[in-house]
């Protein structure tokens, strides 16, 4: 178990819902569904100690008019180099979590944030809401303690995370890693262009399309069949695709335009919630998608933070980051995989 989780007030072991859909199974976000996906930037240890650096040298000499004590042997002081936002310790109290959410959501709300600037903050954001999901009794205290300037976005993100958690079918954590391919998503601005293109063609809000893409496949990172047989970044059943759409459901642009087309056919322009319900027959799913979409409607710049969310998988071996390049055609034992990839450990009791 990570040292920072071994305190008296440590959060309960992270738990994430598992559901039928591919993305749901992944953890993180769990945004989603069964797979709850999420994550960080290359290094798994979020509490990694910072490097040390020598203190400044060249202190002023004593004044000649004073009697200086004998010179002491030179010593080298060290100060911790600040860690990146996605490498900091996991908050272990409601107050600490509220402070971190304030810091992260403030950064993600800065005007003019670039995808590169947003990425580490987005990864941190993803983990913080997983911590809150693992300690839901903290929610009233946390949401009350965050800064008023970010409280609306915190409440929306918590609404999404809470509803995705409610999609869980079982409390039993997986002992095996999923049979998935994990790849890099398309660049944030390229995907944004497809969302907007689809919105212009159909009238379905681009924010809803981005939210579904986030929840279903971490914006295209998770590749493979869901437990229900859905495919592609927007998770279409082949039978559904053939009845509404054209092109290739495994190609991002085609899938995004296809999702907008399907939602429009389902009556999205008159009743958006009902149309999303047709995408996934769950009130919790609808609430989660709408919460993420409402966040983007209020501040489109926050899209870059969501785009950075990784694929995290909550297993019996702990919360694990599944990196780009992961490829398994069959499930593999999680504990064994972790011994081969110790850098994938994020948090938990492993």
Task: Describe this structure as you would to a colleague.
The chain has 350 residues and is mainly α. It has two domains: 3-46 and 85-175 and 310-347, no CATH class; 184-307, Orthogonal Bundle (Lysozyme). It is built from 13 helices and nine strands. It has helices spanning 22-25, 94-108, 115-134, 139-145, 151-165, 188-202, 206-217, 238-244, 252-265, 272-279, 283-298, 303-307, 334-340; strands spanning 52-54, 78-80, 176-177, 181-182, 222-223, 312-315, 318-321, 332-333, 345-347. Strands 6-7-9 form a three-stranded antiparallel sheet, with no helix packed on it. Strands 1-2 form a two-stranded antiparallel ribbon. Strands 3-8 form a two-stranded antiparallel sheet. Strand 6 (312-315) and strand 7 form a beta hairpin. Helix 3 crosses helix 5, helix 5 runs antiparallel to helix 11 (283-298) and helix 10 (272-279) packs across helix 11 (283-298). The chain is globular and about 50 Å long. The termini are close together. Residues 1-13 and 15-82 have low confidence and may be disordered.
């Amino acid at each position: 178990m990570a040292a920072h989780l071994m305190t008296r007030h440590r959060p309960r072991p992270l738990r994430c819902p598992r559901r039928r859909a591919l993305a749901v199974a992944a953890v993180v976000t769990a945004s989603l569904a069964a797979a709850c996906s999420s994550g960080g930037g290359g290094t798994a240890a979020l509490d990694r100690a910072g490097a040390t650096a020598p203190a400044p040298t060249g202190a002023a000499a004593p004044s000649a008019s004073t009697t200086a004590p004998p010179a002491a042997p030179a010593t080298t002081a060290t100060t911790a180099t600040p860690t990146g936002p996605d490498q900091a310790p996991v908050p272990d109290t409601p107050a600490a979590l509220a402070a971190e959410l304030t810091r992260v959501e403030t950064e993600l709300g800065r005007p003019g944030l670039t995808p590169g600037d947003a990425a580490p903050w987005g990864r941190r954001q993803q983990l913080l809401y997983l911590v809150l999901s693992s300690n839901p009794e903290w929610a009233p205290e946390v949401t009350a303690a965050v800064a008023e300037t970010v409280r609306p976005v915190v409440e929306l993100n918590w609404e999404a995370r809470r509803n995705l958690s409610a999609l869980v079918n079982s409390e039993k954590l997986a002992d095996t890693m999923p049979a998935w391919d994990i790849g890099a998503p398309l660049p944030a601005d390229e995907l944004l262009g497809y969302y907007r293109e689809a919105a212009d063609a159909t009238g379905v809000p681009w924010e809803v399309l981005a939210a579904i893409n986030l929840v279903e496949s971490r914006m295209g990172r998770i590749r493979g069949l869901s437990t229900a047989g859905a495919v592609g970044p927007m998770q279409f059943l082949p039978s559904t695709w053939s009845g509404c759409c054209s092109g290739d459901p495994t190609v991002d642009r085609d899938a995004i335009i296809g999702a907008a087309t399907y939602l429009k056919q389902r009556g999205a322009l008159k009743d958006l919630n009902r149309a999303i319900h047709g995408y996934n027959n769950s009130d919790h799913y609808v609430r989660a998608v709408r919460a993420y979409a409402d966040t983007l409607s209020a501040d489109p710049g926050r899209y870059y933070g969501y785009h950075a969310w990784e694929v995290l998988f909550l297993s019996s071996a702990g919360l694990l980051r599944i990196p780009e390049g992961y490829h398994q055609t069959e499930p593999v034992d999680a504990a064994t995989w972790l011994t081969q990839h110790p850098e994938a450990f994020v948090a938990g009791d492993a």
